[in-house]
Write a structure and sequence with these properties.
Elements lengths: L1 H11 L8 E5 L7 E3 L6 E3 L3 E3 L4 E6 L2 E6 L4 E6 L4 E6 L15
Antiparallel strand pairs: 1-6, 2-3, 4-5, 5-6, 7-8
Subcellular location: Secreted
Organism: Denticeps clupeoides
Keywords: Disulfide bond, Secreted, Signal
């Protein structure tokens, strides 16, 4: 059906250089939210976020889809603002490119 095609298109948008992608299916009765398996945070359907393991995730009707970032990236924590960003390990001032899925 159409759902299989949509999943294939979703993964086609992520270059292989961006590492592994995986799906975390959710219970059928939970429709409008997804829970990040790493951070235990909740996200609304069709939203995107980056978790503390530096994976780019999205909340889909079937569950959470996450893709890991390129291996040559590091996480830089900012203790002052309690945030973090992913940067190239060779040039720490350079933000990491990562795939963004359009609506």
């Amino acid at each position: 059906g159409m759902s299989g095609t949509a999943v294939l298109l979703l993964f086609a948008l992520f270059p292989l250089a961006h590492g592994a992608c995986f799906n975390n299916p959710k219970a059928p009765e939970i429709k409008e939210v997804c829970q990040d398996s790493e951070d235990k945070t909740y996200h609304v359907l069709n939203t995107y976020w980056r978790n503390s393991k530096c994976m780019d995730c999205s909340c889909r009707p079937y569950g959470v889809s996450c893709c890991s970032i390129p291996a040559d990236c590091d996480v830089e924590y900012n203790n002052r603002t309690c945030t973090f960003e992913v940067v190239k390990s060779i040039k720490p001032s350079t933000p990491c490119p990562f795939a963004v899925i359009g609506e």
